[in-house]
């Protein structure tokens, strides 16, 4: 592939995450800066974002001065390509505080304060900057004023259009940041904090329900004869599911074992697919990765599936005839 050396935003995030995981954020910053300097970004207008990401990594490595130099570059890159440098400016203010230049930091932040009621990401960025300068009280004052303004802008009835959700998102962001700041400052709960906590709980419940639904989706299993047939009729899909039958059952055993380890109550099941059935299903569709997901959804409607795991001494789910403990169970541990 000719674009193999060109990197997108996700690839940069991955590099950053890996560097943090191995405890060397500075190396991640250096790697990202090299990517920018060597022109290896798939989209050159990502350079401002890339430099900001590198600046965050250097701050994590306790190198505020190095982080400031990269932030200056990020701000210049934003200006060169005509994108707003606001968040890089907020980050610069945070660094100024850390570098003991509080007057410059405040001079930077004050004109950015209106952003609190314009962008849902501004609340935490600005509060972080102010806390870096030990100005929790100022953060509290700004957020309290902004949250009132934002609440007034929330429409009475829920808008149908996603684009009209912005006032609500801004209000929630301010509400929850203010709640956090008040805890930080040791202030007692007020009415807005009660609302913030109720909202946070509702969001958590929704996320838990989504996770449970995702983990409870059955996995698609092809018995050996069906898998062989699939390899003949739809080799591309067999490759996605395998590529060999042994790999297919090992994958499924591992996926199900990982889901069981998530610690949420889930109904783990396998549904049996057949090659002829899948061939009929893909007819007239694009054979892409998600065709398997669509097929599982459709199968789920008409087949109950088989519960997983079997008891250790029962016949294995894969249909080999061997006991589970001697067949697929150990495959998850290789
Ligand atoms: Zn609370
Ligand atoms: Zn088995």
Topology, element by element:
Elements: H1 9-21, H2 25-37, H3 47-60, H4 64-81, H5 86-98, H6 102-109, H7 122-132, H8 136-153, H9 166-184, H10 191-215, E1 219-221, H11 224-233, H12 235-241, H13 245-260, E2 269-272, H14 275-282, H15 290-300, E3 306-307
Parallel strand pairs: 1-2
Antiparallel strand pairs: 2-3
Helix pairs in contact: 1-2, 1-3, 2-3, 3-4, 4-5, 5-6, 5-7, 7-8, 7-9, 8-9, 9-10, 11-12, 11-14
Residues 249, 316, 318, 320, 327-328 line the site of one zinc ion.
Rg, rounded, reads 26 Å
Query: Any low-confidence stretches, pLDDT <50, length ≥5?
Result: none
Question: Count of DSSP helices?
Answer: 15
Residues in β-strands, percent: under 5%
Bound molecules: zinc ion
Neighbour order of strands in the largest sheet: 1-2-3
Main sheet attributes: strand count, strand direction, barrel closure? 3 strands, mixed
Question: In total, how many beta strands?
Answer: 3
Shape: elongated
Structural class: mainly alpha
Helix content: 55-70%
Distance between the termini: 32 Å
- What kind of oligomer do you see? single chain
Average of pLDDT: 92
- The topology string of helices and strands comes to HHHHHHHHHHEHHHEHHE
Coiled coil: 189-216
Keywords: Coiled coil
Protein name: SEC-C motif-containing protein
InterPro entries: SEC_C_motif (IPR004027), TPR-like_helical_dom_sf (IPR011990)
Describe the structure in your own words.
The chain is an all-alpha fold. The chain has a domain at 216-333. The chain is built from 15 helices and three strands. A three-stranded mixed beta sheet has the order 1-2-3, sandwiched between helices. Helix 2 (25-37) packs antiparallel against helix 3 (47-60) and helix 5 runs parallel beside helix 7 (122-132). The two termini are 32 Å apart. It binds zinc ion (2 copies). Residues 249, 316, 318, 320, 327-328 line the site of one zinc ion. One zinc ion binds at residues 179, 183, 189, 193, 197. This is SEC-C motif-containing protein. Residues 189-216 form a coiled coil. Keywords: Coiled coil. Pfam families: SEC-C.
